[in-house]
Amino acid sequence: MEFNIREAQVTDMPEVLKLINDLAVFEKEPDAVEVTVKDLEQDGFGDNPAFKCFVAVTNKTVQGIAIIYNRYSTWKGKIIHLEDLIVNEAYRHQGIGTALLNEVVKYASSIKAKRINWEVIDWNEPAISFYESKGATVMRDWDVVQLNEQGIKNYLSNI
Amino acid sequence: MEFNIREAQVTDMPEVLKLINDLAVFEKEPDAVEVTVKDLEQDGFGDNPAFKCFVAVTNKTVQGIAIIYNRYSTWKGKIIHLEDLIVNEAYRHQGIGTALLNEVVKYASSIKAKRINWEVIDWNEPAISFYESKGATVMRDWDVVQLNEQGIKNYLSNI
Fold first, then answer.
1. Ranges of each domain in chain B
2. 3-class SS at A35?
């Protein structure tokens, strides 16, 4: 199968959101996605984009995405965060995930990022094996902490 | 004890780096900090700062810091990442950590951030208790993944 990796355009966002939704279903949070196509179009493009997106295209359709943005480590300096690496289930095991990750690592190197960070749910063993095969370290002693939108409201009403 | 919370200035960075180093020692990675005062001065200020820093000041010295920056959730939209929340050990249990976190949550709310994210090492029970007491969720099934600087080099030499 042939596919092409390129930077996403505004017009890709409907297909990108579809893959984001598919992942939420897989991660057992089908109702968690509040972002709209319009949000992605506004937030990812223009003068100060909140993220950069690479897409894998085959037969003119988007079958894989990698979404990244800048972060800052107070130990290392500028780093990249890989927010999503998603390949349509029907198109897996054909090198699309690796090709997308290649693009992310090349980009990180080009901007002299000191590290690439991401997060994984600990029962997603295929993803963990894939990441480890690429040289990444899954830090099982480091957990993600979140104060969500309702938590922010509650917090502010208590101070 | 009286203290004052304010946004950091460039001239605070030597004291800020000292607290960053103290935390690395506590987290058993005393040699992990590669960032210099000059890096913090260049990266945190100017036209496109990579982070924002709040400091807690008492007797004209910085005894606590909170460092944040923007991230993007493809489920929720714009979110804030809390990279570091550090209080000098000798100044703990006097409300400085809470006062710094208050400032972060107020800031997140002011820019309509949908969530505040951070990371915690799973044996740091005092930190976990503190975060949970503030309404945050420690997601023990979500792990941090990293491809470090050497990992990026190795990766690129293999494609």
1. 4-118
2. coil
Q: Quick check: B91 and B15 in contact, CB under 8 A?
A: no
Q: What integer pLDDT is reported at residue B91 of this predicted model?
A: 96
Which overall architecture, per CATH, does domain A4-118 show? Answer: 3-Layer(aba) Sandwich (3.40)
Distances in whole angstroms, Cα of residue A154 to Cα of each of A8, A151, B128: 37, 5, 18
By C-alpha distance, which of B56, B79, B83 is closest to B67?
A: B83
B144 with A139: Cβ contact below 8 A: yes
Q: Specify the pTM.
A: 0.95
Question: How remote is the C-alpha of A118 from its chain's centroid?
Answer: 8
Q: By C-alpha distance, which of A100, A47, A74 is closest to B53? A: A74
Residues of B in contact with A34 (CB under 8 A): 75-77, 114
Task: Count Cβ–Cβ pairs < 8 Å, chain A vs chain B.
Answer: 216
Contact across the interface for B137 and A147, Cβ inside 8 Å? yes
Q: How far is CA B118 from CA A121, B68, B70, B139, in A?
A: 15, 9, 12, 10
* Calpha distance A155→B107 (Å, rounded): 12
**Cβ pair A149:B114 closer than 8 A:** yes
For residue A108, list chain B residues with Cβ-Cβ distance below 8 A: 152
Q: Which chain B residue has the Cα nearest residue A51?
A: B72
Largest separation between any pair of C-alpha atoms in chain B:
57
ipTM: 0.95
Alpha helices, DSSP H only, in B44-124?
Answer: 96-110
Per the prediction, chain B carries an average pLDDT of 96
B152 to A116: CB separation less than 8 angstroms, yes or no:
yes
pLDDT at B1 over 90: no
